[in-house]
Amino acid sequence: MAFKFTILFAACIAVASAGVVPVAAPLAAVAQVEEYDPHPQYTYGYDVKDAISGDSKTQVETRDGNIVQGQYSLNDADGYRRIVDYTADPINGFNAVVRREPLVAAVAAAPVVAAPAPVVRAAPVVAAPAPVVRAAPVVAAPAPLAYAAAPAPIVKAAAPLIAAGPAIVKTQYASPLISYAY
């Protein structure tokens, strides 16, 4: 409530002292006319190749009126270079074509020269005697085992604990700046 009275008091002082301040001449409005280019044109580009971090990216863009054309490229984490060619105009909108190229060029395999085949003579064919197969003797399976019923377990119930308190658990929390232990 006191804040409202302070604001009201400050407003009254401002109104009372307003007549004391001399009135300055009105400032002339300075209008700056911005030039409008009906056919804007620009070209820019940049290239980053950092040998320490391995970062490599480029971009080139050209504008001629309402048509913008450009290309940018960057190295992806999977070992490929992504190259995007794009155009934008009022009729077709924004269109991009994305290509991917491996960063490491494929190594061409050395041509394989066929060595002359060694001369091998076939071993003479000898008829082997037919193997003798005998049947295994039949053995009677033993009778299944019968299990006797186990005697009923004896259960002893202990009296419940009434005065048991909460379990004490030791916990620790840690961060780079603060550490707690309970």
Per-chain topology:
Layout: H1 2-18, E1 41-49, E2 56-64, E3 67-75, E4 80-89, E5 93-102, E6 172-174, E7 179-181
Antiparallel strand pairs: 1-2, 2-3, 3-4, 4-5, 6-7
Give structural notes:
With 182 residues, the chain is mostly beta strands. It is built from one helix and seven strands. It has one helix spanning 2-18; strands at residues 41-49, 56-64, 67-75, 80-89, 93-102, 172-174, 179-181. The strands form two sheets. The chain has a five-stranded antiparallel beta sheet, with no helix packed on it. Strands 6-7 form a two-stranded antiparallel sheet. The longest helix is centred in the first third of the chain and has 17 residues, at 2-18. The two termini are 47 Å apart. The model has no long low-confidence stretch (mean pLDDT 74).
Protein traits:
five-stranded antiparallel β-sheet; two-stranded antiparallel sheet; Larval cuticle protein A2B; single chain; CHIT_BIND_RR_consensus; mainly beta; repeat; signal; Insect_cuticle
